[in-house]
Amino acid sequence: MRETPIVSSIDALTRKNAWEYLVITVAPDDSLAAARQRLVEHAEYGHWELQRSLLYKGGTRRFWLRRKAMKVESTLLVV
User: Fold this and answer.
1) Has this prediction a pTM greater than 0.90?
2) Is 26:62 a contact under the CB 8 Å cutoff?
3) Less packed terminus of the chain by CB within 10 Å, N or C?
């Protein structure tokens, strides 16, 4: 199982509602129950939502998760 985070810097600069993406790829020989558990943990604790899922011809599964990118502003005072 492989996780690939994707953050689009163009979206973050041009749009108010920018998204962060996480792509989880599950090999055909990996357990589907383990993949499902990983998706549940990301959704519950990381506030990710399932955007898309694909089942490829060879049995590989790919899941796209997304969440709103949090914009953090500095609270430090510059003197």
Assistant:
1) no
2) yes
3) C
